[in-house]
Amino acid sequence: MEQSESPFDSFRVIIKLLTITGFYEIESSRKYVRAIHQAYRIFVIFIMLAFAIQHYIYTFQVADQDDKLYGLIIGSPQINFMVKILTVHFKYGRIRELHVLIKDPIFSSTNKKDLEYIQRNNVAMQMLGKSIYYCMTVAAVTLTLVFIFKRIEDPVNASVPSYVPFDTTSTIGYSISVCLEVTTIFWIGFGQSAADCAVACYYSQARTQLKIIKYNLEHIFDNEDEESILMEHDTSSNVRPKYIDEVNGNIKTKFISFIERYKMVDWYVTEISSIFDTSITCQLISSTLATCLVSYMLSLLEIFSVMFLHLLVCLVYFKMQAFIYCFFGQLVEDESKSINDAMYFSDWLSVSPRFRRYIIISMTRWTKPLTPRVSTIVPINFVTFASIVNSSYRLYTFMKSSHIA
């Protein structure tokens, strides 16, 4: 059939963002364009490294405890950004292999229902990519308002949580430092969010492929030419009834193709977890710590204040970073668990005992779900997300009780 949409179309918006922020290489036939962009990617790493150093210099130098906590909160995404962008730089060859597989015909549609699954996933992932623009705009606006109101409330002591080699007590100096801070954090937010959504897109593609496999396995014995299948015969005759796989040799070929497709999805999910293992682990740990710090600071602030609103946005952002991994990882696990159900609900009685043995062997393999993991043991699912929330609350309770004491 004519392929009107490719599974790789779901990555268009995300890859564009990752290219702009210096994560992914630019796709261009011009050598000098690729060389310039490669230099830009290296430049981004040094700029963000310098920016992170500035923040931690400020955090260790400032005397006020609340400013220290806020410095740690703002500094957390910078560490994650560095880990993620370095992961992509050092493992970009393996990421290219993922892209080659996604573009391979083995992941393409073979019927209208397959194409429908691919189109739905493409629309959903493109919407996810576009949501980054809106979320980061809201975060940048609230951060800017925080600095403006801090300046209005306390013109003398208002400061930006970053070390700068010039005086920020003047209006011009303070404005310049605010512009540098907001612009860079805005850039980091775009890059981080795009990197998180990229992993989500990879897992979502695995889920889509599993849905395609499920549908085709459930209907693999449907819509065949029943007249050519002698399931009924004359009782006076000794002719054995023919099974569907004996009449139609394509059945076995199709079944083998879905087994191969599943094997590629299995490799694909394992490879995603292996490539992004360090960055996902760092993200889950930092989300736990950052959520604890933000919750602690929120408990000390007035509800009707710009700083409270800003930290609330940060809290949602940190939680969403962990949730997006666990959500899509859970979808992959749930989809893979139902492969055997799809096979069972097919018309497997219409195939020969020999073919049924093939089915049983395959179902034995499909019994083990495809569970994305980090550090080879920690599953990326709702159980892990619940543990992160629980750990954050315990740390918050400890800090709050220590503060009261």
UniProtKB/TrEMBL annotation:
Signal peptide: none annotated. Pfam families: 7tm_6 (PF02949). It is found in: Cell membrane. GO terms for cellular component: plasma membrane. One of its GO terms (molecular function) is odorant binding. The keyword Transmembrane helix applies. This is Odorant receptor. It comes from Conogethes punctiferalis.
